[in-house]
């Protein structure tokens, strides 16, 4: 393509081209073609994301110097990036066409700030009622997205001003309300009856997305009759998310489905005591009414492609009939989440018949499936995987064991899961004891890219298997898990993987193997090492340029989490991070060898609950006996260990 043709391309066409290019190709295009750069630059600065305060200052300087504000439409400021009143005024002066402005610090906001943003559509979550009122008074005619925090919602409900407050945003399409939860008093909680729900749509007639957290849906006997006969619908609504929801009548299930027949996304996460009280001695909702309500919901919502039902009770949810009704109505789901509330008292959750009903109707379309494994599923695990193997487009899978007490002793073969689901790209396993049954399957390369393991049993052989079979894993999380067999050196050797993100959190704090095979509470591991194979050559060249004779044989980076001895310091995050010196690393290796030879380390957790144990910087040797984590990989971009984050620059 000639340069003259590139310069004549409209910006909309260039934006579509650039949208599908990776970052490396964008950089090459910008470096090799100035004409393309001139036409492309307005698209590059259309959306700006700032992670650090220094970046924000540099951005403001460039914006003023090169007059970039006219091209900017979105600005996203991350958590630690504050904004002052002068910077508000600067954006107001130079970015008149701004549509999205997201930030976390409302301290320096004052009334006239948003008046000049005539096209502003999205603002950050509102935590102050008066500042939120000022924003709606200034830009209520243009705002399309509004999020209110629990404190704001509670204050508005106590003064009965919630619906009048929302009427100021007459063009809202996305509304998010976080309710306030109090175990002692219902005052200030987010509640809607039939009339209030109707007034909500009258106040915001253009809504397409509603999301509420901790909400109570009520209806009197007279309102129940009206809800059963009401035929008015809101066809513009496409997404409904209700979390921690309670209902005093199951008619709400049928009513919501009848009101929103064009829903494509539905998420219902019920409260823990929504159906029965804690010990199941009293039913708050009738079983027959709930079954009829869920079946009515399945028969009315024919355009769903994302469905999430969580904290269900097996006694109130007709699982097999529900999914058969979806199949009969021709509903083809792409994303499905089914989670039951199965505690010690209630053991009735997902079973084989419900899973077969899901697979019968959704095996050709479902891409993401989040579900529980029923009691004793490990005994017939191949039957569960046989059903999942029929899902030919399954790319994301989340499995969680319902056996809360004995899941540690019920092995789940990870290699079998990968063999049964050859198209998986994202896998999450919760409350599992992971093992490898057939190590020879490691030669069969699997396209898995993301793996999250939580509250599970892991071992060194598990990660050795993963690096051979899944070299494409770039996202790894090991959260609240424990290492077995118990070792002072916990090695995550994955030399074939290039990681974008690795998270290791709360390792060996729960379910640590103790005396006589019993499980006990452990102590946090505060020492960890990172070895990046792609950086070894770079480090060796650095030593050779300095003519340093004492080149270390092992160029592994060692880190220690420690506590600052300052009573005035807020203890969040509860620890700090530092890198160990070469002499300290030699001392650490000596201590590791000593503890391996003389294995009389304290049995962690036998004296009681040990949640976090952080020592001072100079006493780091006291943490060696509790073990350390060693990560080996090609490279890693971001590592989050407990509460601390380490970023490495990108490597070509």
Features:
single chain; 652 residues; alpha/beta; 16-stranded mixed sheet; five-stranded mixed sheet; 20 helices; 30 strands; 31% helix; globular; disordered N terminus; F-box-like_dom_sf; F-box domain-containing protein; LRR_dom_sf
The biggest beta sheet reads: 16 strands, mixed
Distance between the termini: 28 Å
Inertia-based shape: globular
Q: Number of DSSP strands?
A: 30
Helix content bin: 25-40%
Using only CA atoms, what is the Rg? Answer: 28 Å
**How many distinct helices?**
20
Which stretches are low in confidence, meaning pLDDT under 50 for 5 or more residues running? 1-6, 601-611
Organism: Choanephora cucurbitarum
InterPro entries: F-box-like_dom_sf, LRR_dom_sf
Protein name: F-box domain-containing protein
Give the secondary structure arrangement, pairings included.
Layout: H1 3-8, H2 11-19, H3 23-32, H4 34-44, E1 47-50, H5 53-66, E2 74-77, H6 85-94, E3 100-102, H7 129-139, E4 145-148, H8 150-158, H9 162-166, E5 174-178, E6 190-192, H10 194-203, E7 209-217, H11 221-229, E8 239-247, H12 251-259, E9 265-270, H13 287-300, E10 306-312, H14 319-328, E11 335-340, H15 352-362, E12 368-373, H16 381-389, E13 396-401, E14 411-413, H17 414-420, E15 426-430, E16 433-435, E17 450-454, E18 457-458, H18 460-469, E19 475-479, E20 482-483, E21 489-493, E22 498-505, E23 512-513, E24 519-520, E25 527-532, H19 536-545, E26 557-562, E27 576-579, H20 582-597, E28 628-633, E29 635-641, E30 644-647
Parallel strand pairs: 1-2, 2-3, 4-5, 5-7, 6-7, 7-8, 8-9, 9-10, 10-11, 11-12, 12-13, 13-15, 14-16, 15-17, 17-19, 18-20, 19-22, 21-28, 22-29, 25-28
Antiparallel strand pairs: 23-24, 25-26, 26-27, 29-30
Helix pairs in contact: 2-4, 3-4, 12-13, 13-14, 14-15, 15-16
């Amino acid at each position: 393509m000639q340069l003259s043709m590139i310069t004549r391309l409209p910006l909309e066409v260039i934006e579509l081209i650039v949208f599908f290019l990776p970052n490396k190709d964008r950089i090459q295009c910008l470096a090799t073609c100035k004409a393309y750069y001139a036409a492309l630059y307005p698209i590059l600065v259309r959306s700006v994301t700032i992670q650090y305060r220094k970046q924000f200052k540099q951005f403001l300087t460039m914006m003023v110097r090169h007059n970039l504000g006219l091209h900017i439409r979105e600005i996203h400021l991350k958590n630690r990036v504050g904004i002052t009143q002068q910077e508000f005024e600067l954006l107001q002066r130079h970015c008149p066409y701004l549509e999205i402005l997201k930030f976390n610090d409302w301290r320096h906001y004052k009334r006239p700030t948003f008046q000049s943003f005539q096209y502003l559509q999205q603002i950050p979550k509102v935590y102050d009622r008066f500042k939120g009122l000022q924003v709606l008074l200034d830009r209520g005619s243009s705002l399309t997205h509004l999020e209110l925090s629990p404190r704001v919602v509670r204050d508005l409900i106590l003064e009965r001003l919630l619906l009048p407050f929302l009427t100021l945003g007459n063009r809202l399409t996305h509304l998010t309300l976080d309710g306030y939860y109090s175990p002692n008093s219902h005052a200030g909680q987010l509640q809607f009856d039939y009339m209030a729900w109707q007034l909500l749509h009258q106040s915001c007639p253009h809504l397409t997305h509603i999301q509420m957290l901790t909400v109570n849906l009520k209806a009197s006997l007279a309102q129940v009759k009206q809800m059963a006969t009401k035929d008015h619908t809101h066809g513009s609504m496409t997404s409904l998310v209700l979390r921690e929801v309670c209902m005093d009548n199951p008619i709400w299930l049928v009513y919501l489905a009848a009101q929103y027949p064009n829903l494509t996304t539905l998420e219902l996460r019920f409260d823990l005591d929504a159906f029965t009280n804690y010990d199941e001695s009293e039913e708050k909702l009738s079983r027959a009414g709930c079954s009829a309500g869920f079946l009515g919901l399945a028969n009315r919502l024919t355009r769903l492609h994302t469905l999430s039902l969580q904290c269900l009770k097996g006694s109130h949810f007709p699982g097999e009939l529900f999914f058969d009704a979806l199949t009969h109505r021709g509903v083809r789901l792409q994303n499905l989440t089914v989670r039951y509330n199965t505690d010690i008292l209630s053991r009735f959750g997902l079973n084989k018949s419900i899973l077969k009903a899901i697979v019968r109707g959704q095996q050709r379309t479902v891409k993401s499936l989040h579900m529980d494994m029923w009691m004793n599923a490990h005994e017939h695990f191949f039957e569960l995987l046989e059903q999942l193997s029929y899902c030919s487009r399954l790319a994301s899978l989340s499995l969680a064991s319902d056996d809360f007490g004995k899941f540690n002793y019920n092995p789940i073969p990870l290699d079998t899961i990968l063999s049964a689901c050859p198209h998986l790209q994202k896998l999450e396993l919760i409350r599992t004891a992971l093992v490898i049954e057939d190590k020879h399957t490691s030669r069969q390369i699997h396209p898995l890219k993301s793996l999250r393991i939580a509250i599970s049993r892991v071992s060194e052989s598990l990660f050795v298997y993963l690096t051979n079979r899944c070299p494409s894993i770039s996202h790894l999380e090991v959260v609240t898990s424990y290492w077995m067999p118990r070792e002072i050196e916990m090695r995550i050797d994955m030399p074939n993987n290039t990681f974008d993100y690795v998270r290791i959190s709360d390792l060996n704090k729960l379910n640590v193997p103790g005396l006589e095979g019993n499980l006990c509470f452990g102590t946090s591991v505060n020492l960890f090492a990172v070895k990046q194979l792609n950086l070894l050559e770079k480090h060796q060249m650095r030593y050779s340029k300095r003519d340093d004779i004492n080149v270390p044989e092992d160029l592994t980076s060692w880190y220690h989490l420690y506590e600052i001895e300052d009573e005035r310091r807020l203890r969040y995050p509860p620890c700090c991070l530092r890198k160990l010196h070469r002499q300290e690393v030699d001392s650490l290796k000596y201590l590791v060898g000593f503890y391996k030879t003389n294995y009389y380390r304290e049995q962690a957790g036998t004296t009681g609950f040990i949640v976090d144990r952080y020592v001072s910087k100079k006493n780091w040797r006291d943490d060696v006996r509790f073990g350390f984590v060693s990560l080996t990989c090609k490279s890693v971009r971001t590592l989050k260990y407990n509460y601390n984050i380490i970023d490495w620059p990108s490597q070509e």
